[in-house]
Design goal:
The chain has 286 residues and is of the alpha+beta class. Helices cover 49% and strands 19% of the residues. The chain has two domains: 2-187, no CATH class; 200-285, Sandwich (Immunoglobulin-like), CATH 2.60.40. Helix 1 runs antiparallel to helix 2 and helix 2 runs parallel beside helix 5.
Length: 286
Amino acid sequence: MAAETTISEDREQQAKDTEAQTKKELVNEKRRERSLGVYLLILPILLTCLLVAIWPSPFTPLGETIPELRSLWNFTDQVEVRLLMIVLVSGALGSAVSAARTYANFHGLGRYEPSWTWWYLMKVPIGMGLSLFLYMVVRGGLFSASLNDSGAVMNTANPFGFAALGALAGMFAKEASDKLEEIFKAVFRTAEKPVVARPKIDRLDPAVKKVHDPDLTLKVEGSGFDAKSTVKVGDKKRDSVFKTAGLLVVTLSSEDLAKAGKLPVVVMAGTQNGGASVEVELAVVG
């Protein structure tokens, strides 16, 4: 009885430990879920503030006639660096908004899966990279002129357009990836090699020849023949006349019919890389 009581107590203790461990894991999972929600709530706000802080605006100092670009955070005077920063922050903002929207939808429906946590975390850097790639494509193709004059940025390369490009690339990462793939294929497209029909022998007419047959004519019927096609009987080429793409008339040699046996017949394509047909045997009987 004492042993049974001990075993029963051990089982109850194991069940309690398992239940406690399960509750602990659920609590940790809920904590991570809430932390992710707070992250996706704060991140778009911070990125919006950063975008506002670096946004360039024309400013004309007293006594000057040429406007300069100023922003709340003047981290650099280089226009190219400003544009890159605007695009990167806009891409991050678009990705953060997309991730927050997805999180809110799935969390509200009770379908949030912890295994997707890294997807939400990687969404922002992926969006920044895609926005940067699209910016370089558009900037290099449409705005190739160097912006030495900082005031020209408002007229030549409107930051609103590049910010919108970056934000859309971040929000619609898949569509942006597909568009970059299309551009890559269009730029690096190689000429397709023409398809060359490989000769094919359907049958020989006649399929059987007699030893020392005075008639040395052999018709090869099939497809893929041309005027430059050649015919090999055994391991030697024989004279042939092109009739159609499906018919060659071959003149055999007397030595081909000198003895009984089987002769392999192969048609070689006249065009480059055309290859050769599968061999068909011509039977020579006594």
